[in-house]
Task: structure prediction
Amino acid sequence: MLASSLFAASTVKTWKGWFSDLSCATPRAKSGVFTATNPECAKKCIESGVPPAFISDEAKAVFRVQGHPTLKDDLGYYVEVTGDVDMDAKIINVRSVKRLEYQGASCARPKPAAKK
Result:
């Protein structure tokens, strides 16, 4: 499907949130968590072919990202994104990004307990 026809019924939205990858963001969203993911993990996943995602804490949703070729540079930042949104397909075609604050990772695996 062409992008122009895909976004024919879309609306322009501006939301705050974080960039990530779908494999990290989707399970967290299903459990009701709409926060940043580990930016280093997200970068590795995106580089390995996992689709990029935008986590909107305002919309309480995760969107597949299109049209933001420098997304990896914005990982770890709380951002304000404006884009054409297809709510049914959960896709956002990014028009602009404004970095608001660097937050880094909001989750980390606990370190194994030291052996005694």
Summary: Confidence is low (pLDDT under 50) at residues 1-7, 108-113.
